[in-house]
Amino acid sequence: MITQHISVKAAVSFRLQGQRPYQEDSRWPDTDTPPVDTRTFIVCDGVGGAAAGDVASATVCRSMAQFMKGVPETRPLTHIDIRRAVTRAYYDLEEAAGEGARQMATTLTLVHIHPGGVTAIHAGDSRIYLFRPGSGIIYRSNDHSLVNTMVHRGLITPENAEGHPQSNIITRSLSPAKDYDDRSPVTVREFSTPCRGDIILLCSDGVLECICDEELERIMLGKASLQDKCKRLKDICRVSHDNATAMIVEIEGPEEYVEEIEEDAEESGTRTKSISTSEGITTDIAPLHPRLSFIQRIKRIFRR
């Protein structure tokens, strides 16, 4: 077994308003040049427009980032860490919606890098990719969307899904909830063997509107610098009808590549690959069941 020390070699980002009259995307760190000692990267895409999607994305992004700061650098995220982080995000969302905007919601993509590997968390149709030199797309998160569900059920083909009129309908997001059962879980993927040169991309669907997986792969695994790759992707996304945000992270880790690669058809509507059998497991994690104080219960009653 290889002793690994996974870290960030470089990270770059952009956030464009596109042709929208408002900006509902949020990111962490909120800079085009995240420092290399950053361990957590987040992209959220607010849903709802006038219904305060910008508030939802900013609230969840900030809440998750603050929680991750408290996780010790010497160990991976546990499932209980994730449940607590998501629970806190829901509480913060519900506080932010206290004076209205109960329809607001946000997608979530989060990548946390620790010495032993990478944890990827998502909800909605914002996406996480893992690219590997010589192998291509190792992982692509499975969109929580109506169209993607139709693809998996065989109702439409992946080709029909492109440009589908219902492509903007998502089946999972983080939004204020009156009851615990209304809180959506997040999907979690663990990678215990990332390698030197691996590139992780987190992006909102405004990016995906402008570029296909094949072109993304060519850019991310090309010979250009990370900054030039980011600039190329940003230039492509300038015509997006939606807000477009991307976070690109290059991994510093062991040089050895895992040779056992298997296709993971269930994870995506297109051909993707998972690093190994142990990392082919994707888990849905729900927030903790609320244990509310008497005062909190009274507040909830009046909110209804």
Topology:
Blueprint: E1 7-16, E2 25-28, E3 40-47, H1 53-69, H2 79-96, E4 105-106, E5 108-114, E6 117-123, E7 127-132, E8 136-140, H3 146-152, H4 158-161, E9 186-191, E10 199-203, H5 205-208, H6 213-220, H7 226-237, E11 244-252, E12 262-263, E13 273-274, E14 282-285, H8 294-303
Helix pairs in contact: 1-2
Distance between the termini: 54 Å
Q: Major beta sheet, specifics? A: 7 strands, antiparallel
Structural class: alpha+beta
How many DSSP H or I helices? 8
C-alpha Rg (nearest Å): 19 Å
Share of helix among residues? 25-40%
Q: Your description of this structure?
A:
By secondary structure, the protein is of the alpha+beta class. It has eight helices and 14 strands. The strands form three sheets. Strands 2, 3, 4, 5, 6, 9 and 14 form a seven-stranded antiparallel sheet that branches. A five-stranded antiparallel sheet has the order 1-11-10-7-8. Strands 12-13 form a two-stranded antiparallel sheet. The longest helix is centred in the first third of the chain and has 18 residues, at 79-96. It starts with 6 loop residues before the first strand and ends with a helix.
